[in-house]
């Protein structure tokens, strides 16, 4: 009888240990490829905070051409329309890294970015390769709003 109680206590203890698993559910991520980036993305957070009022950044990736179109009012008081090419490389230690260069001989992007948490629900995180404190969260959107395209076009015509 004592052995039965010991076995029951042992099974109860083992059951408690297995039911207290601290693993959080794993959210599946997409592979970082031009096809999975294709479309329009809006910068929704920079370094964990929403963008200041009146600032924005939209980027549209074209998977076939590996080009991008960017509408931004982020580092200037004027809206800007910027185009260029992008590429993705896979580092065995860091993961997928996106980089790009601007059209018209304007040089490379300031940073290369490690892309993580590319979710099917439509968000991704970019962390600057050389500055882990520079973190950008993008969310997928249908298109660049017409008023932003018009603002960038007006500012482009004036310059």
Automatic annotation (TrEMBL):
Ranges for domain Lipocalin-like: 37-116
Pfam families documented for this protein: Lipocalin_4 (PF13648)
Keyword Signal: yes
Keywords: Signal
Signal peptide range: 1-21
Name of the featured protein: Lipocalin-like domain-containing protein
């Amino acid at each position: 009888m004592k052995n039965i109680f010991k076995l029951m206590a042992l099974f109860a203890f083992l059951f408690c240990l297995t039911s207290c698993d601290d693993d959080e559910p794993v959210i599946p991520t997409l592979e970082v490829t031009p096809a999975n980036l294709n479309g329009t993305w809006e910068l929704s957070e920079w370094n964990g905070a929403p963008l200041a009022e009146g600032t924005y950044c939209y980027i549209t990736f074209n998977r076939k051409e590996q080009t991008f179109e960017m509408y931004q009012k982020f580092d200037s008081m004027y809206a800007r329309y910027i185009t260029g090419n992008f590429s993705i490389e896979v580092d065995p230690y860091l993961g997928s890294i996106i980089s790009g260069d601007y059209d018209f001989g304007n040089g490379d992007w300031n940073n290369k970015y490690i892309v993580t948490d590319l979710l099917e629900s439509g968000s991704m995180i970019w962390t600057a390769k050389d500055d882990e404190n520079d973190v950008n969260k993008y969310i997928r959107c249908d298109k660049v709003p017409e008023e932003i395209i018009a603002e960038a076009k007006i500012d482009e015509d004036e310059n």
